[in-house]
Amino acid sequence: MIGLALLLGLSATGSATVSATASASVSATKASPAWVDESNCKNCHQQADQQWRNSHHAKALTPANHDHKLPLGELKATEKPVWLIGYEPLQQVLIASPDGRLQAHHLAFATEQQTWFDLYPEVADNPDHPLHWRQSAHLANTQCLSCHVSNYQTQYQPKTDTFASSWQQLGVGCQSCHGPAGNHQADGGGFELSLAASDQQLQVCAQCHSRRNELLPFQPNVGVHQQFLISPLRADLYEVDGKILDEVFEYGSFVQSRMHQAGVTCSDCHNPHSGELRAPANAVCSQCHNPAGTPKLIADTPRTIDFNKLQGQAFATPAHHFHPADSAGAQCVNCHMPGRVYMGNDLRHDHSFSSPNPAQALALEHSDACLGCHQDKPAAEMVAAFARWYPDAEPRDGGYAQALYRAREGLPGAAEGLLKQLQAGQQPAIRHAALLAELGHYPSLAAQQQVAAGLTHPDAWVRRTAIEVAPALFNPAWLMPQLSKLLADPELAVRMTAVEQLLAQDYPFKAAAEGAALAEYSELQQHHLGTAQGHYNQSLVAGTLGFEAQVQHDLQAALQRNGHYIPALIGLAQWLEKSDAKAAQQLLVSAQQQQSEAAEIAFALALMLIRQGEMAAGLEQLQQTVALAPDNAHYSYVLAIALYDNGQHEAAMDRLRTALAQAPQQRHLRLALWQYSNDINERERLMKQLRQLNPFDPLINSPARY
To answer: Helix 667-676 and helix 680-693: axis angle, to 10°?
Structure first.
């Protein structure tokens, strides 16, 4: 029987995952060559230098010496506009303070229109808002600069809470991509880092052209999974077909593409020094996609691309695109690389190289190039035209988007679709990981087999995801030893993900190898003490090691860095509750007053009130939590259980019905309603739905186990 008492030990977020922010290797690495003054590079590399000088990379950070006036409003006497970050189509001003902090102001300059505009007009007059430019979300020292200068060093000083940040070169210079040039300059030899290999080149570009949390600063010959936690294909970041949704840059979409699978890399299309296309408009595509099917690459780097599947066809013709020559619809990029606007005016193109399919887009609720361009026409007209022009068109993803959509929406066949895709093993690793991430909602022996295999998968994307989804499918007795093995994984991102999962499970880290991994995780946090998250992660380690006083110190330090940081607010309240329940409760009440729209705080306060015997007040807070986050199934689940335990059975079941209608993939909602309901027809209907979703569910043949 589900009981509220069982839930009160849950974290206030309802999730055991802790996000790792970290940044410096603990593993021994050989000393790298020295960083040098890049002004000498032009002596031997004149052409590359000339191409680079007017590039976005070269001007990624420049002095704020505009001729036009900076309308920044009221600045403190000690605040000075010192840098412009970005080049085109917008520039933000970095404001320097005496403590070394560089804050990105909310006003940005639109270079084409030569006007200023406000990136966050809704918070401009509220300095306490988390998105106000003076808050830590806009602290360039920790959020921006590593991708706008070469050899960036944060150099946070914990004792004085100041920054002495430094860099080798303004903008993204030679050594940002090629690595330190000390040996190269001394003897004319090569670099430690070779960019000839397509994968190595992509790894270097991904350092900044990806959505990621930094684990390590740039290091030559170190892959992305040794330096970063790259964001997966989550529903809030990418569309269900893999196209970009939130500000994720290029890497995550590109590694899904057939171009990437064939060995194409960034410099095949972009001049790596100027950043411009190798050829104008469609010509960059016709390097490979031409009537003869004969590739004529402009790039002179010797590499291997698999052209076996390259079709010889005339693409730049109305017979292919059905639009007038030289029109917008005749441009390859508009159909196969649709863009989104970020930061007010910055158009960025998707790099998964998708093909339009308006019928699928309507069915799966993702964007589409045809529908996007022709918004003035009925969607049915677009679908009919596309079917007429391309009668044999089929989705080119092997059914990936449809399987993922059915799983996320809780539609019949969801489990079978996921398992079919995973068992076929034909998807790129990042997509394989996205499919694997959904299996937690659809338990079965086959799902366990896929996740267990994922723990030893050759790709780090998949191993990380398997670590995160495994607790939903396995009992701790089996899982903990498996996760412990991954503490010795060759990829830093996998090791740290395993540490986080074990920390969330209160794992003791007793073995020597386990202790070493925990020490590595802890040392990584030392390089992020300028952020609230670094201190918060340290508090988790301190708690595991039994250093109670250090837990409070770390949590308070986190809040000193960012008073709005919700995990630290909740963590400190839970820590205080052990000795002073009233103070703990007051902390959350105050936090709620300051962040009235934060459902996480309302939820934490609700659980605390119930733990302290204040059921009525706790229920009120749970109701408020659900009102703030109606799409959060976990909050509705806990509210329903609290209502049921409080004797409000019908209200509990109504809450479950509403939540289940919004999130039919959430198995625990369906099973809770099945358990609570006395209506035999409703119970049969719920079990039928479960069977349609996942015929392999272990409860279908033995519901009495629940």
So the answer is: 160
* Averaged pLDDT score across all residues of the chain: 91
Is the separation of the CB atoms in 673 and 657 below 8 Å?
yes
> Tokens at residue 653, please?
């079941």
CA distance 415 to 418: 5
> What is the percentage of the chain residues whose pLDDT exceeds 90?
81
Closest to 83 (Cα-Cα) out of 271, 100, 280, 683: 100
Beta bridge partners of 212: 230
**Which helix (H) or strand (E) element contains residue 569?**
helix 566-577
Q: Which of 310-314, 333-337, 667-671 has the lowest mean pLDDT?
A: 310-314
pLDDT tens digit sequence for 524-566: 999 999 999 999 999 999 999 999 999 999 999 999 999 999 9
- What SS3 state is found at 96? strand
DSSP line for 11-49:
-TTS------------S--PPPPPP--GGGGGGT-HHHH
Helix (H) or strand (E) segment spanning residue 149: strand 149-150
Cα–Cα distance, 544 to 9 (Å, whole number): 16
Token match 């949390």: residue?
A: 213
pTM: 0.93
Q: Which residues contact 432 (CB under 8 A, 6 or more apart)?
A: 422, 425, 457, 459, 461, 462
Q: How confident is the model at residue 297 (pLDDT cuts 50, 70, 90)?
A: confident
With a CB cutoff of 8 Å and minimum separation 6, the contacts of 274 are: 51, 52, 54, 55
pLDDT-derived band of residue 10, with 50, 70 and 90 as boundaries?
A: very low
CA distances from 324 to 280, 318, 328, 373, 564 (A): 18, 6, 8, 15, 54
pLDDT at 229 over 90: yes
* Residue corresponding to tokens 């390859």: 332
Instruction: Extract long-range pairs of 453-459: CB within 8 Å, 24+ residues apart.
Output: 455/482, 455/483, 455/486, 457/429, 457/432, 459/429, 459/432, 459/433
Report the sign of the C-alpha dihedral through residues 532, 535, 541, 545, in that order: negative
Tokens 């994922």 appear where? 454
Rounded to the nearest 5 degrees, what angle is found at the Cα of 101, between the Cα atoms of 96 and 107?
55
Distance CA 288, CA 296 (A): 6
Q: Cα 694 to the chain's mean position, in Å? A: 28
Here the tokens at position 324 are 């007038």
SS3 106: strand
Residue pair 22/492 in contact (Cβ under 8 Å)? The answer is no
